[in-house]
Structures are given as structure tokens and as C-alpha cells.
Design goal:
The chain is α/β, with parallel strands linked by helices. It has helices spanning 18-23, 25-38, 42-48, 51-55, 57-75, 90-97, 103-123, 136-145, 167-179, 200-211, 234-244, 251-260, 274-282; strands at 2-6, 83-86, 126-132, 150-157, 160-166, 184-187, 222-223, 230-231, 265-268, 287-290.
Length: 293
Amino acid sequence: MKAYVFPGQGSQFPGMAKELYEQSDEAKALFEKANEILGFRITDIMFDGTQDDLKETSVTQPAIFLHSVVLAKMLGDKFEPDMVAGHSLGEFSALTAAGALSFEAGLKLVAQRANAMQKATEQTKGTMAAILSLDDEVVEKHCAEIDGIVVPANYNCPGQLVISGELEAVQKACDALSAAGARRAMILPVGGAFHSPLMEPARADLASAIESTEIKSPSCPVYQNVSAEPVTDPATIKANLVAQLTAPVRWTQTMQNMIANGATATIEVGPGKVLQGLFKKVDRGFETSSAEL
């Protein structure tokens, strides 16, 4: 069984998706439609912008979504998922590729999500930190003991958990986790406290947009970040998407569940190879590859 997975923020690079645009008229038409929907030429930034240009949340998220979704569409009959999942932002790409969201609706939601998150980061002083080589339970316990807001945010793979919250609380948690034996407890260069209660304003902003968007049953089960479980019911998909901004990304559990439910290979659709590396941390012998036309 094939699991198709879609990357999230951090996978962008200058020149991304340029080959796709040049290879096919259909791809070119989708990118031009995206420029129109977004109200600016995101393709100019993707193809010719610098790493810094691509770091803007309002650019990064739609750029990765477009790279992933257009690639999935160009695969045509070769796109045969038995199950799909996406890391954070990638969940919107996965839902669009699996037919639960239309291209237009998916892109509009991603743009609204990016703007809502950008706004929330400006309202609160938050950050994130990567904690390496500690059990999840140890990280959870120490976060719970810190005064202030700090929570597990991204369960990326066994031994790699990202925490998120208020600046001071995250720093205190890093000190405590270093003392508890973490190989690294490192503040990340991110704009805000994603997947934490500090994203509540963004969640509230996005909730009404998600509620008013048509979501259909996907062509295969979608393993959603919030539960790490396979979902096909549109109402459940909506509720999980709304919850996603303030809840942790349960990617470790998603990979484990996909494998337990019969996945024998994963194909990463979009920029980079981050998710393939994370699957290898769960099962070294697991077959991974990048989607290619």
C-alpha cells in the first residue's frame, strides 16, 4: 500500500517548481490561476526570489501548497494513493490532492491560514524549540511543570519533538530539558509559537473560512495531524482542520499508524525530502521516494 505525504513549512527553496511550470501547459495554467487568486505573482517569488523572500509566511505556505498540489495533478494516473497525510500546512495539500478540497478552495484557505498565522505572531511574543534525544513523555512532563505557556507542538519522529509557546516559558523548558539529558534543546528561527494556544486568534480567524468551504469525501483516507487517525468524513475533516492551528502535529503517530495499517512505501509530493527522512527514523528499512513525473 502506498502512502503519499506532503511537506510543510521549511521545505521551500529558491527556484522551487520552476521546472513544473515550464514542463506543461496544464501546470502553467494552474500557477497563473494561483497568481490571480492570490492577487500577486507568487510564481515570480518562487522562481526568482531569494531564501529570505520565501521565508514570509504569506508566501511560504501558498508556495509549498502550489508546488505539492500541481505536482500531484501532473502525476495523473501515476498518483495512486491508498492513504495520504501532510505535515501541518501539508495537510491542506493532501486534502486537495485527494479531492476533498478543490484547487481554488484549498489555495484560498492556505492563503487565509498564512495571513491569520502572520497576524497572530505579531500579537504575541512566542517561539519554538527543537528537543532531541528525549522520550516524548519526558518532554511532555517538563512542559507541564513550567510556569507560562509551553506545549509539545510537532511530534516529528521518535527522539525529535518541537515545543512551542511564550518566549520565556520555552527558554525555561529548554534549560530544564537540557538538564534532563536532551542532546539538544535549541530555539528555532521561526516567527511565532505555531501549534500552541498562542495561535488561538488565528484559529478563530480561520474557523469561519473552513466552515463555509465545501469539503467532500477524499478519494482515500487522510491521516490528520490532530488525531493521527485515518479520516474520510467531511465534518470530521473540518473540525480537525479548525483544531489544527492550536493542537500538536502528531506526525510520529501518523507514520506509525500508516505503517501499522499496511503502508509499504511512502512517496513525498512537493519540495524537499524531510518527510522521507522522518519515516526512516520510524523504520530504517521502509521504502521512501520523491514523486517524479
